[in-house]
Amino acid sequence: MNKKKAYLLIAIGAALWGIIGLFVTYLNKLGFSSIQIVTIRAITAAFFLLFYTLFKDPQRLKIQLQDSKYFIGTGIISVALFNWCLFSAIRETSISIAAILLYTAPAFVTIFSRILFKEALTSRKILALVTTLIGCALVIGIFPDVSGSISLYGFMLGLGSGFFYALYSIFCKFALRKYDSLTVTVYTFVFAAVAVTPFSGLSSIFPLFSNPRVWLYIVGLGFFSTMLAYTLYTKGLNAVESSRASIIATIEPVVASLVSFLVFNEKLNLFQHIGIAMVLAGVLLVQEPSEVLDEESSLLSK
User: Fold this and answer.
1) Which string of b and e fits 39-63 if b means at least 16 CB within 10 Å?
2) How many helices (H) and strands (E) does the chain have?
3) Are 227 and 16 in contact (CB under 8 A)?
4) Is 58 helix (H, G, I), strand (E, B) or coil?
5) What is the per-residue pLDDT across 66-107, written as a single tens digit (0 to 9) for each?
6) How many CB atoms lie within 10 A of CB 164?
7) Domain extents for the chain?
């Protein structure tokens, strides 16, 4: 796979993550708690992925028992703990603060990738990282309004969400050395579902599932914003450095802000428009100059 296609897959995956708030908001309004939504997300994604893989190529479901460590990493340590930290941070602080702390993830990925994979820490990456982090702060609306303070516990939870979110790219890199991207994604959510279901309390809200709208939102959450998003992101990660992928994925809050504006009529201010531009600029900056030139040449030849 060429890098241009890999960047596109990662960007589409991140955009699909960006619309998750649409389904989560409606499910919350219908009476589901955060941990229950996380569990529904994991279970439905695992179901869709298993069904798709059984239909397409059952051989991809074969893994060695000793390799479970990879999926404990991606599914439990990353996906399950990232969600727990994020929702706890939202409760302890606010949505805006939790979101901006979540997007410390690219910084963690860049550091981990340098240590574990010896990926070069270029000035271009650093500039892209700083640009996207500032852009995220502007989009989410926490900057330039920096009023208020948060507890140390809330701050650590927020950083924890970014830390565990970052670990998905890292654990994936190890798993992808041995398994196909689809296999990695399937077992990520199988392990996540097994880990979170016992603590979800889903059995106490069975009557809510009689509402047809619930199933509509569940399909959107489990298929589009989870199965498809993670499949595309993981596939793109095959051909792109973890640090680059994590920076490209910061278009997620941009999409989330646009969804809020278009669906929930939340207005975008000047700083948010600037933030969107900065995040997109960061995505372009993370490409090597030669890749950008190749892309421009390709466009000119069409």
Assistant:
1) bbbbbbbbbbbbebbeeeeeebeeb
2) 16, 0
3) no
4) helix
5) 999 999 999 999 998 888 888 777 777 766 667 667 777 777
6) 23
7) 3-300
